[in-house]
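Subject: sequence -> structure tokens, single chain

Hey, anyone have a minute? Need the predicted structure for the following. Not urgent.
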Amino acid sequence: MNYTYILRCGDGSLYTGWTNNLEKRLEDHNLGRGAKYTRAHLPVVLVYYESFPTKEEAMKREAAIKRLSRPQKERLISSFTEADP
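Reply:
Had a minute. Here:
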């Protein structure tokens, strides 16, 4: 499975990415081995994710979420009901 996810960083900013192992990627971000952006904005908390059967679909959704405004991302996050990844 592939995932598109949003993290809330320690400073309140949002980071969007994709991965095929959500738990490991979150751990990597918090250990400073994730994206350059998140290394400077630790700690991070997973606040949203979607799952997809293919990498391409997850990457396409990541790009679409990155184009959203901050208020649109916050609405997406607030509508999220977490399930096990």
